[in-house]
Every structure is written in structure tokens, then in C-alpha cells.
Design brief:
The protein is an alpha/beta fold. The chain has two domains: 130 residues, Cytidine Deaminase, domain 2, CATH 3.40.140.10; 217 residues, Dihydrofolate Reductase, subunit A (3-Layer(aba) Sandwich), CATH 3.40.430. Helix content is 28%, strand content 25%. The protein is built from twelve helices and 18 strands. The strands form four sheets. It has a nine-stranded mixed sheet. The chain has a five-stranded mixed sheet with strand order 2-1-3-4-5. The longest helix is centred in the middle third of the chain and has 12 residues. The radius of gyration is 22 Å and the shape is globular. It starts with a helix and ends with a strand. The mean pLDDT is 94.
Length: 357
């Protein structure tokens, strides 16, 4: 199952709205087939593994990281494919939360006389599929908030100088993280100040994440890198209903997708923002700031994972903070996260946190 999970992770960021599933087929002590969900969500992992196994799948055991699907979509159900292949046993990590599948895939297999074992490495699988489960159950994607800061929590000097606070190893790690998410999200201030491309670089010819900008008034320069490359790599602009029609037409003409979002107190409503992204199929979103967007997501309790890259320099109180105003008066009002990983990353420190239970 550990091998199946590692295979499934190869599809992260490229299978949405489908989950990134891994499958290993074993005959005796020999792996005869393995597969993972392919780009765009099809073919599914089980189909790939069965194709590799061929006739050797008969009487074999299939290890799969998520309950095999039981419904007819663009492809026949994977549960039926396992039955037709003559698999004797299926070991699954977790049950699917999609109501079209939940429990039904296991029932199909058992009704066909296949032995089914569940719950193997279920915690690891639940983490891997957390974005898919969140979208299925709550309608929103998993949100990872990444902050690259000085030791004193600043992202730039008072003059806005920020390149580079962290070193090349940390920046390469960030590109790898982008690759494992469906989309990269930034606020309008970051898009204006940094003119980022938000693409994955130095990893070869890979499927790029969707680039999402939260900009209530669509006030992002039309000469920006995002605008100039919108026809090559998807750009979604999440805007308020009060955005100027002329700007809507201009962004539409350069190839960006416009996503209207409800507003609250003059700002984009973060709940509405994530619901709309979920409706469009996203399961994992990598937010890279800025401070106002980070604060709004934290205040709404919508950040599932925090990743920090901390550099060994101090900028001072006049520098720009990594998180905007939260308006907290007591420490017990602050959102708490649990540390799950920390390690050196070149000359910087990477630390990863998930929401406390």
C-alpha cells in the first residue's frame, strides 16, 4: 500500500477534479501491475495497473489507495474492471466520500466474491486525498498557505524589495510544491508588486497549475506576465461584481477566465472564493499571499496547511508583514496549527503545519 500511495502522488496537481489514486497488483510476491491516475483524471489507476498486469491479474491482489469507483462516467467503473480481470482480493486504504461511489464499489466487489480489506494506511491515504474529500463534502479545495519570510516574519522591506529573502533551494522546493497542487493563488497586491509568472520551472515539460488571482476590481496590469501568457497557461481572475465592464472585456480578450465572487465589507468573500474554485473542479490550491489574502483565509478558518520558509535575516518592524491585520485581542482567538515537519532547505528552514484537531 505504501508503494500504491507513492504512485498516486505522481498524479497530484494533474488529475483534478478526480482524485490522484495509486494501484499495485501483486501475484504471490511479485508486482505484476501498477498504475496511477493519469493527467486529466483518466485513465484511472486501476485501469492502468490492470493493463500492465494482463492475464496475471487473475487470482491476484490489488492494492488501491481509494475505493474503486462504482458508477458509469466517461469510463466504466473500476470495480467492474477488477471483477472482469478475475482479481481475487482488493485491499483499499479508504472509502470514497463521493455519494456515487461511497460503499458501492466495495459492495460490487464483495457481491462478485472478491475478498475486500479496508483501512490499510488509511491515515496516510486520507491526507493524500484530503482535497478530493473536502471538495466532495464541503464544496471547496484544500488550501495550503505558503509564506517565505525573514526571521522576523517580513516578506519585503518597507520599499517593497523582496528578491530574494530565501535561497535557491527553497525556491526550487516551492516549484515542486506548485507542481503538486491544481492551482496557485495570489492576491492582486502580490500580482501588481511582483509581476509573478506563477508557473512551475526547472522540472521539464510538466502540466502547469492554474494561476488564480483574487482581484475584486480586476486592477492587475494588462501588461503583466499573467496577462501576456494567459492563452498558454490558464489564468483565472476572481473578481467582484463591481469590477469595471471594460476591464472584464480586456481580461477576457487576453484569454483569462473571469470568476465572479461575492463580496463582504468591500472585500472578496473567502468562503465564496473557495466555493467557486471548488465548483470549477479544483481540489488543491497553493496560496502564495499576499498579506491581505492570507489574513482573510486564516480568519475564515480556510487554511488547511501552513508551509513556512524562514531565512536567517531580519528586516525590522518597518518591513512588510507576511500576514495582514487579523484584529485579534487574545491569543486563544488565533488559529492554531500542529507542526508535522521541519528541515533545513539550503540556508533556510522549511516548516510545515496542519490545522489542530
Amino acid at each position: 500500500m505504501a508503494h500504491a500511495l507513492s504512485l498516486g502522488r505522481r498524479g497530484m496537481g494533474r488529475t483534478w477534479p478526480n482524485p490522484a489514486v495509486g494501484c499495485v497488483i501483486v501475484q504471490g510476491d511479485v508486482i505484476v501491475g501498477r498504475g496511477w491516475t493519469q493527467a486529466g483524471g483518466r485513465p484511472h489507476a486501476e485501469t492502468e495497473a490492470l493493463a500492465m498486469a494482463g492475464d496475471r491479474a487473475r487470482g491476484a491482489t490489488a492494492y488501491v489507495t481509494l475505493e474503486p469507483c462504482a458508477h458509469h462516467g466517461r469510463t466504466p467503473p473500476c470495480a467492474q474492471a477488477l471483477i472482469d480481470a478475475g482479481v481475487a482480493r482488493v485491499v483499499a486504504a479508504v472509502q470514497d466520500s463521493d455519494p456515487r461511489v461511497s460503499g458501492q464499489g466495495f459492495a460490487m466487489l464483495r457481491d462478485a466474491g472478491i475478498e475486500v480489506t479496508t483501512g490499510v494506511l488509511s491515515e496516510e491515504a486520507a491526507r493524500d486525498h484530503a482535497g478530493f474529500f473536502l471538495r466532495t463534502e464541503q464544496g471547496r479545495p484544500w488550501v495550503t498557505l505558503k509564506l517565505a519570510t525573514s526571521f522576523d516574519g517580513r516578506i519585503a522591506t518597507a520599499a517593497g524589495h523582496s528578491k530574494w529573502i530565501t535561497g535557491p533551494e527553497a525556491r526550487r522546493e516551492v516549484h515542486a510544491m506548485r507542481l503538486r497542487h491544481d492551482a496557485v493563488l495570489v492576491g492582486a497586491g502580490t500580482a501588481r508588486a511582483d509581476d509573478p509568472s506563477l508557473t512551475v520551472r526547472d522540472f521539464g515539460n510538466v502540466q502547469q497549475p492554474v494561476r488564480v488571482v483574487a482581484s475584486r476590481l480586476l486592477d492587475v496590469p494588462l501588461m503583466s506576465q499573467l496577462a501576456q501568457t494567459a492563452k498558454d497557461v490558464p489564468v483565472w481572475i476572481c473578481h467582484g461584481h463591481d469590477a469595471a465592464p471594460a476591464l472584464r472585456e480586456a481580461w477576457d480578450s487576453v484569454g483569462a477566465a473571469l470568476v465572479p465572487i461575492e463580496t463582504e465589507a468591500g472585500q472578496l468573500d473567502p468562503v465564496s472564493l473557495l466555493q467557486r474554485l471548488g465548483e470549477r473542479g479544483l481540489t488543491r490550491v497553493f496560496c502564495e499571499g499576499g498579506g491581505s489574502l492570507a489574513a482573510s483565509l486564516l480568519l475564515a478558518d480556510l487554511v488547511d496547511e501552513l508551509i513556512g520558509f524562514t531565512a536567517g535575516l531580519a528586516i525590522g518592524a518597518e518591513g512588510q508583514p507576511s500576514v495582514g491585520v487579523l484584529g485579534l485581542s487574545r491569543l486563544d482567538e488565533a488559529p492554531r496549527y500542529r507542526l508535522i515537519e521541519t528541515r533545513a532547505c539550503g540556508r533556510d528552514v522549511m516548516h510545515r503545519w496542519v490545522r489542530s484537531a
